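Batch manifest, entry 17 of 40.
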Amino acid sequence: MRLLLVRHGETSANVDYVLDTAVPGTGLTPLGERQAAALPAALADEDIEAVYASTLIRTQLTAAPLAAARGLDVLVRGGIRELSAGDLEMAPGDSEQGRLYMRTAFAWAAGDTALRMPGGESGAEALGRYDAVIAEAAGSGAGTVAMVSHGAAIRMWTAARADNVDVPFAAAHPLRNTGVVVLEGSPSDGWKALSWAGAAVDPAGEGGPAGEALDVRGRPLGAGGQPSGAAGRPDAE
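Output type: structure tokens
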């Protein structure tokens, strides 16, 4: 299956740069509406047979023009919603709470799936629900599927599941609104990322989901086992 993971259009929470992960969430800004309207043309070369969106309003509004252009219904699934921020909900993305959110997400991608977001879900729960929707799509027999989801969820899931995307790559490559990650594969055979926001994905240095080692707070370790800095720009919403 060819899998297109699409981040939703711009929201007011994006403009305010806060963690907004609860259902139903905010709608789209005027710019976000224009971004959604541009998706059918941007994906015109893709033979999309199914369009999914999360239970958050912004993904459904983003998916609607694409689905309408293909004569498809939007399939709404809670499993591809944003990673729940729990106690960190509505925290500024550039605060320590915002950085903790992303460190936790990337620690999940690195394999520490028992770790729990403060007041929220664990990595096992987040990956499990996301995997279930993708397995459903793969089982449908569709050749190409578009899923309109969320920045942190897409980056975490891709780093955990794509053979050629590791944690350092996903941490260093935030997705802009309506940015697309294109993958090919299946739940049984694994996944390979073909492009990330329009650019080809180079093979990860070590391959697999683990990437480089993380410290106990989920931060990538540099030479000598010292933390190398924050694990990427928070873009959950």
